[in-house]
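Bumping my old thread because nobody answered last time. Still need a sequence for this structure:
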């Protein structure tokens, strides 16, 4: 089963008193405990978690992609958090820019999913789009698990036949409805990888329960896309659930406070 959320002993402290990310032969299970899913806050039992990386000044991209921000620990955590999820939620712009394909699991990753009480099959990618997607993208041609396309009633006819379709909204995606349908289909641990537009939509709709944010030791300036590309009428209050370091990268977890 996936680990519970009880505090766990810290390894030796890193500089400045912040504990280092777990390491060693049991690191994956220790990370899974550290990043255990929060309890559902609302009806339906679905939890939405985002995994993002940003610079010190909030930039989310280097030359249009997030790949230049991470380090090996961030890349490892990226894969591990995917393997703890039921479904991976991503925006169409990120699918195009990052050339997303389906998730392929080696024997080690299949074994740890089974150890954590999950299916040995890779979680599907669920992409949000209004305009449609090229059926020749790796998302559709390079995958073990058929992707899910979340779109509108107007856009449903443009979804490739190799994908499952969720229609949510007439001409604009209704994210509350989309998350509700995912939960009703058994995808209750929803792991969002952005990009900024999708993240902003989830935050604006108050659907994001947890944000795993890696802070990269870079300043990118105004040319970088901001991590949250949305106007909020009122500040959304969050609480710190954990912080670890690896090198000069800071790994944080924040959970939404309600009420």
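Sorry it took so long. Here it is:
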């Amino acid at each position: 089963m996936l680990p519970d959320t009880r505090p766990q002993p810290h390894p030796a402290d890193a500089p400045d008193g912040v504990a280092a990310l777990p390491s060693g032969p049991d690191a994956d299970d220790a990370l899974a405990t550290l990043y255990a899913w929060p309890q559902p806050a609302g009806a339906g039992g679905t939890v939405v978690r985002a995994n993002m990386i940003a610079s010190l000044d909030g930039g989310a991209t280097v030359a249009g992609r997030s790949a230049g921000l991470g380090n090996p620990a961030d890349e490892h955590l990226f894969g591990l958090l995917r393997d703890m999820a039921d479904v991976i939620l991503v925006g169409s712009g990120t699918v195009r820019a990052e050339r997303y394909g389906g998730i392929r699991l080696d024997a080690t990753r299949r074994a740890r999913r089974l150890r954590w009480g999950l299916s040995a099959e890779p979680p599907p990618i669920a992409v949000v789009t209004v305009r449609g997607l090229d059926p020749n993208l790796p998302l559709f041609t390079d995958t073990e698990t058929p992707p899910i396309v979340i779109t509108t009633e107007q856009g449903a006819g443009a979804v490739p036949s190799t994908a499952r379709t969720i229609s949510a909204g007439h001409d604009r995606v209704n994210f509350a409805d989309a998350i509700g349908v995912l939960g009703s289909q058994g995808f209750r641990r929803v792991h969002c990888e952005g990009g900024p537009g999708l993240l902003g939509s989830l935050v604006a709709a108050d659907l994001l329960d947890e944000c795993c944010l890696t802070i990269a030791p870079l300043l990118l300036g105004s040319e970088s896309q901001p991590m949250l590309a949305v106007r909020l009428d009122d500040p959304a209050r969050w609480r710190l659930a954990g912080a670890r370091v690896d090198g000069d990268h800071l790994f944080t977890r924040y959970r939404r406070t309600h009420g």
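Residues 176 and 205 are 7 Å apart (CA to CA). Let me know if any region looks off to you.
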